[in-house]
Amino acid sequence: MRFGPVPLDQAEGAVLAHSLPVAGGRLRKGKLLGPADIAALAASGLREVTVARFEPGDVAEDAAALEIAGAVAGPGLELQPVGTGRVNLLATGPGVARIDAPRVDALNAVDPAITLATVPRWQRMDPRGMLATVKIIAYAVPGAALARACVAGQRALALAPPVLATASLIQTDVGLGMDPDKGRDVTEARLDRLGVRLVEARVVPHREVPLAEALAAAQGAIVLILTGSATSDARDVAPAALQRAAGRLVHFGMPVDPGNLTFLGALGDRPVLGLPGSSRSPALSGSDWVLERLVCGVPVGPAEIMAMGVGGLLKEIPTRPRPRGQRG
Q: Do 192 and 65 fall into the same domain?
């Protein structure tokens, strides 16, 4: 593509680079100039105009954006109509963003005019939420570069939809008058936005045996534990109760704050998630990242959890008993 000022009598068939006023209105940038446009510009006193002129093999911005978007979009995504070289990719339902970052990087390295921007990996998506946008930042790109970008970014994006439909919540009571309805309501809201139904919510004393009995009887496809006192060790009440119920502790702790005291376990083939006290707030917590992936069938283990530290310093919840800035 050639770009720059040309005499008006050579501008027909080129793309107008900047919007210009003419009698009765204006010609918008990006317009393919025809004879009537040239006449209107001449009548406005112009003798020169800045344009983009396609060369053999160039692909116009809208066509290029559509081709890129079609190449990168995997299951669970739909394309919005193209305009001004942009196509947005939307989630077709709830889920988490499955993004192949090396493919996205490879696509963006092909040509500066070809760009793909996404939400962070594994971000929770609402239906019709924008997961990515393709933007061609020139009026045309070379066809060869477009072809390379399509190969580099092939199926780089997808939506991982929920695969678990039900959940159980077990809360423990330490006798300090904590309202269990708050924990239940906030947890139910978290589950609802992923299309998961809370099939039971129980409150048991904060002791190993009654918690183990509740775990053994839980019916949900995922089991959530919200203790009245923070789980501060892998041998604390909740992890010990999980093992007493013939479950296993997979990992305790995470480098995300709030959410450090999250733990992950299993009861047979069902995931068990120990929620930190911060989960009583609707604010984002590290446990949300684990919960969302588990619900959507994305493998989560110690390696994945311990890789969450970069970006894991989240906004502090207003009700935190001991804020980060407090000393002692």
A: no
32-70 per-position pLDDT tens digit: 999 999 999 999 999 999 998 999 999 999 999 999 999
CATH code where residue 72 lies: 3.90.1170.30
Q: Give how far the C-alpha of residue 179 lies from the chain's centroid of Cα atoms, to the nearest Å.
A: 32
The domain of 47 spans 14-53
92 part of a folded domain? yes
For residue 165, report the phi and psi dihedrals to the nearest 5 degrees: -110, -20
248 bridge partner residues: 266
Residues 271, 217 within the same domain: yes
Task: Dump pLDDT digits (tens) for 117-151.
Answer: 999 999 999 999 999 999 999 999 999 999 999 99
Q: Is residue 1 part of a domain?
A: no
Cα–Cα distance, 166 to 186 (Å, whole number): 16
Place of tokens 């183990």: 212
Closest CA to 169 of 240, 219, 212, 241: 219
